[in-house]
Amino acid sequence: DQQVKQNSPSLSVQEGRISILNCDYTNSMFDYFLWYKKYPAEGPTFLISISSIKDKNEDGRFTVFLNKSAKHLSLHIVPSQPGDSAVYFCAAKRQGDYGGSQGNLIFGKGTKLSVKP
Amino acid sequence: EAQVTQNPRYLITVTGKKLTVTCSQNMNHEYMSWYRQDPGLGLRQIYYSMNVEVTDKGDVPEGYKVSRKEKRNFPLILESPSPNQTSLYFCASRGRYSNQPQHFGDGTRLSIL
Q: Which among A80, A83, A94 is positioned nearest to A21, based on CA atoms?
């Protein structure tokens, strides 16, 4: 059962416009969410995160919004640039639980963003 | 430069021939983890380690082994590789606190014929 879902495999946006990448989750025990960006032939790199006690976190052009009641988060990129073209992974972390799996991340399948000049 | 280094980056081998993918980090991180990435499936955790001599299974551990004898190294071992282990593998590390983001290596593409 997929606990972190990115339902859009791809997204195409014009340079300068807003990119909105969506992520849904099913497990109410998730307490921390992260976005990673991945270029071809490279490993994922951390982009931005948000704790479940917040509903928004901003870092430059990147903003993550969390709607806990809907179990939904989104990443906004404004303005989008061609260099933002990459695969974006949403990830969620479970609260500490018995068994030592605290801190393990569950990843979505990714959304490929293409920003056209 | 802070980094996670995986070797080899690419490997083509045959079924049943034991192989090891090495992973080394220079950030003195306690936590290390292995993932595989497959088309349409995203990143799935294979094994993780909270510290030296402490390892545990992730979501897809079958067919893999790991060891953590030193803090900086976390090799992934395929004792008898099979074609369904053909995949892109990533090693990652982070500090002791679970809200710290993980740093990933650049990946190892394995093809098992």
A: A80
Structure tokens at B60: 């897809």
> For residue A99, which phi and psi values (nearest 5 degrees)?
115, -10
Query: CB distance from B105 to chain A under 8 Å?
Result: yes
Check CB contact under 8 Å for B45 and A34.
Answer: no
- The closest CB to that of A89, out of B31, B42, B105, belongs to B42
- Report whether A107 contacts B42 (CB < 8 A): yes
Q: pLDDT band at A98, cuts 50/70/90?
A: very low
- State yes or no: pLDDT of B38 exceeds 90: yes
Nearest alpha carbon to residue B36 among B51, B17, B68, B58 = B58
- Report whether A74 contacts A90 (CB < 8 A): no
Asked if B93 is an interface residue toward chain A (Cβ–Cβ < 8 A), one would say no
